[in-house]
Amino acid sequence: MTETARLLADDPIWLILIKVVALFAFLVVMTLLTIWAERRLIGKMQHRPGPNRAGPFGILQSLADGLKLAFKEDIRPVLADKWIYIMAPVLSAGPALISFSVIPIAPEVTIFGERTALQLVELPVGLLVVLASASVGVYGIVLAGWSSGSPYPLLGSLRSAAQVISYEIAMGLSFVAVIMYSGTLSTAGIVEAQSGGWFFALLPFSFGVYAVAMVGETNRAPFDLPEAESELVGGFHTEYSSLKFALFFLAEYINMVTVSALATTLFFGGWHAPWPLSLIGDGMLNTGWWPVLWFLGKTLMFLFLFVWLRATLPRLRYDQFMNLGWKFLVPLSLVWICGVTAIRGLRNTEAVSSGQFLLVGGGVIAVLIVATLLIPDREPPEPAEPEAPLSGGGHPVPPTDLKVPPTPPRRTSAGRQRLPEGAEGADSTTKEAPDGNV
Q1: Which helix (H) or strand (E) holds 132?
Q2: Torsion 152-155-161-163 (CA) sign
Q3: What is the DSSP string of 365-383?
Q4: Which residue range forms the structural domain that includes residue 199?
Q5: Would you say residue 48 lies in a domain?
Q6: 63 in any annotated domain
Q7: pLDDT tens per residue across span 252-273
Q8: pTM above 0.85, yes or no
Q9: Which residues lie in Basic and acidic residues bias regions (predicted)?
Q10: What is the pLDDT of residue 366?
Q11: Which is the most buried residue in 120, 181, 260, 275, by most CB within 10 A?
């Protein structure tokens, strides 16, 4: 049992309730602030002001929008399946809240005289809880599209199901190397394993795969294809309004916070202070409430990445998006896992020294680069032969010698000249005298 698990095992019930309420309030406040910051940052990137009316710097705009949304009329389509239509938003937002419960925010603090860890629950399989919550959350999206009784939400929900399945596989494969180096599935144990060095530098490819997969998992731009307004109006939540729509909105942003916090936990040392701050006072900044500051700073860095991508990149086509997941991320992740396994095996048996390993690895990378450069470019395709003229083939076809008839002369304001009677295009009912009078 880890130190975090021992601390949490002694928590009284009132402290657990405080943590639950504080965690819910934290995620809701983070949602409001993330929406406001996203609108402000995208406004700055696109040279426009963004929200600037409600409160200082428009910081109360998200709260005003949420209150307005709560008082909107709640409309349910006639063809909707009532109970599933109501249950879908709850099923989407609930797992988003649960998955954050295994994220360690600080190692040990004192709350009202009780020593505890800033983590709701510590499980030996914490990473699997996050993956399971993400898998259950997609049911809310699928059922929302199906129960709406409309084609566009159904198409959006089917897209989301395929998208989440594809990128959950890539995300799970990115966890494997982290688990191998830390030796545990516990989130607190993974953070402790990074006390000597963060995994993003040791496992850069795993971090890159996770960074792409977390954007696809949360349906964010440029991977927001389940709610592509240019094709599907609003996607799976087109037929939702009022608080039900607000729950989908809340689930999306809570998922953003969760995957950002998980990236901090897996690859950026969790609550550990960044170097060189970690050297101050022999690790003094890694105790007490200081780790909360480092954890929030790293999480906000990833949330800024979400906003930056939305303001910068256009939406991908669906075939490009699926090819990226199945033909690039998954195969290369499998090759990377095999390489990491071989490295760990050689290091554990001490059959190869570090210098020899770096020499061989550098040689392999150099060979791959040279082979890539020497691959000849594809020759351009030969021009297609001109098509044969159209033939009837037993069916009537229009003639090929049609000519455009000549344009008739234009009427003029002076004299209103007309063609002589009997000529093509002449007006047979109107005659003009030589002086121009009718």
Answers
A1: helix 126-147
A2: negative
A3: HHHHHHHHHHSPPPPPPPP
A4: 3-343
A5: yes
A6: yes
A7: 899 999 999 999 999 999 999 9
A8: no
A9: 429-438
A10: 74
A11: 260
